[in-house]
Amino acid sequence: xFKQLFFIAALIATATATSNRxxxxxxxxxxxxxxxxAPSPTxxxxxxxxxxxxxxxxxxxxxxxxxxxxxxDESKLMSFTIGGYPVRFRQLTDxxxxxxxxxxxxxxxxxxxxxxxxxVDEDAVTDKRPRKCSKKVISPKKMQQQVGCDKATSSASGVxxxx
Length: 163
What we know:
This protein is α+β, with helices and mostly antiparallel strands. It has 3 domains: 2-36, no CATH class; 42-124, no CATH class; 131-162, no CATH class. The protein has helices at 2-20, 28-36, and strands at 42-46, 49-53, 62-64, 67-68, 76-82, 85-91, 96-103, 107-114, 117-124, 135-138, 144-147, 153-156, 159-162.
């Protein structure tokens, strides 16, 4: 929250300074902190097992239960499991890779790295029912919704809502 307020204050100061055509004083300490900040690993824990993944182009580091993993060169199903669930590594591009943990009921946890940035998603395999099963309706507020076959669930802006 503090960083967001600082960023907003910096934007206001920038807008004011550019409108008055005065030079902006830069906070060197804040600039140095941004430059020297190292990425930290992202951790997923299922039961007693943990998978830690650090983003970055080289060396694609990961740890399983605190122990460093093997070097990752190619996409493959990993030899370890997390919480008893299989894990797959995929090299997506030369700048991105992902680990996917396959959970029951066609659900997945995806840890995706692009350069130094990490993202964790819960990914579900889409249902293979026919598309004519769902209908689009316009609500009184003119918001488009997708109503399911059971006429009880709907999706508005990608968020599941129960009617």
